[in-house]
Design goal:
By secondary structure, chain A is an alpha+beta fold. Chain A has four helices and five strands. The chains are: A alpha+beta, B alpha+beta.
Chain lengths: 189, 202
């Protein structure tokens, strides 16, 4: 029968094997995750970034580790308000906010975040995701501009059509009056 | 310049205890970033010269290895690349940035009392000998005194610990806060059986 010492040793070995597998899986997850994501400490110091996160903000791998997350904020006040809200609620979902890439380019993103807490509900880290909606927003704006232009065109087109109807009617009336005048002239003669 | 002689190497190798592979990951990452694969090969050759059959690529982060190997891995890089104490400090500072498991398991509370409680456990998770004790925490003065007991290897390792501790605490402080770690007592200089560090922050 397996002794207690051997049992503990075997269990530890198995746990270690599991942790190694988990660490590799987490690393692969960061590498392949298509949504830009990162983890931070409770005061929002970046601890880990995924490949998509580095790509979105145009940073090299590990370049942002140890930096404050505020480094990617476009409007500091708005971003701080979001972080304050997160510190209180411990979870935020799809908050639209302007962010900034390394080269200064503005990025519009939907930010979601959740706190990891200990048993006393004290946060010891946060997990963030950033869904880039810059292109969607740009397309939306372009579409809106086109809608406005179309409405303007429609107004002009309909206005012209009404004018033509008016002119046609006026022309008809003029025709009638000319006919009437010709008739009156003929009667006089 | 020789950092360590054969006799000192043997003394370190004789030390009892084990360290998790995760410690090697931090050192290896720094070597690969700064010296590439060729630099790693040179470091491994130095380890082999000291009689250690060490291959970084075969190190498993959660497996246990002789405690002396960890210290000698650092010293081998110093020997091969003629790195200064400041370089070793930077190597230590890079450490907490590397392992996913360390970042997940070391809970970086912003409350210093809670963070201080994490420190001894972090050591125990990764080393089978030695002990880390938070001797004092003065939140008003923004200072913490930490002692590393029964884990003296070489003065260069003190620089590594300074750098490692500094980054770890910096992770839990605002970016505007400056964290500084300074060794105040060293078993190699002060006839004490421990290394003592003062962690301070602004």
């Amino acid at each position: 029968m397996e002794t207690t010492k051997n049992l503990y040793q075997r269990r530890e070995r198995e746990l270690v094997e599991d942790i190694v597998v988990l660490e590799k899986a987490i690393k692969n997850f960061w590498e392949i995750l298509p949504i830009p994501a990162c983890t931070t400490s409770p005061i929002f110091i970046i601890l880990e970034t995924g490949k998509s996160f580095d790509t979105l903000f145009n940073y090299k791998k590990d370049e942002l580790i140890g930096e404050t997350l505020k480094k990617v904020s476009f409007d500091k006040n708005n971003f701080e308000a979001l972080l304050d809200n997160l510190s209180i609620k411990r979870k935020v979902s799809n908050i639209e906010i302007a962010l900034k890439a390394k080269d200064g380019d503005k990025i519009l993103a939907l930010v979601s975040a959740i706190a990891q807490e200990d048993d006393d509900r004290e946060a010891f880290s946060y997990l963030f995701s950033f869904v880039d909606v810059t292109l969607i927003k740009k397309t939306e704006e372009e579409l809106q501009e086109k809608v406005v232009a179309l409405e303007k065109f429609q107004k002009i087109a309909i206005g012209r059509e009404l004018k033509m109807v008016e002119l046609k009617e006026a022309l008809g009336r003029s025709h009638e009056e000319v006919k009437k005048l010709i008739r009156q002239l003929a009667e006089k003669n | 310049m020789t950092v360590i002689n054969k006799e000192e190497v043997n003394k370190i190798l004789e030390k009892e205890g084990e360290v998790r592979g995760v410690a090697f990951q931090s050192i290896g990452d720094f070597v690969l970033k700064n010296k590439g694969q060729a630099g790693m090969a040179k470091t491994e050759a130095q380890m082999e010269e000291w009689g250690i059959d060490f291959h970084f690529s075969k190190i498993s982060p959660m497996a246990w290895y002789p405690i002396g190997w960890g210290a000698l891995f650092v010293l081998a890089t110093q020997e091969v690349f003629n790195w200064s104490g400041q370089d070793i400090r930077e190597m230590g500072a890079n450490g907490p940035k590397v392992s996913v498991v360390v970042k997940l398991t070391f809970k970086l509370f912003s409350d210093m009392k809670k963070l201080a409680r994490q420190v001894p456990g972090f050591w125990r998770k990764n080393y089978t000998v030695g002990e880390v004790e938070v001797v004092s925490l003065n939140e008003e003065k923004k200072e913490m005194t930490v002692r590393f007991k029964d884990s003296s290897f070489h003065p260069s390792l003190c620089r590594y610990i300074e750098g490692f501790t500094e980054t770890t605490f910096q992770f839990s402080r605002p970016k505007s806060s400056v964290v500084s770690v300074k060794e105040t007592k060293c078993s190699f200089k002060d006839s004490v059986p421990y290394e003592e560090y003062i962690v301070s922050w602004t």
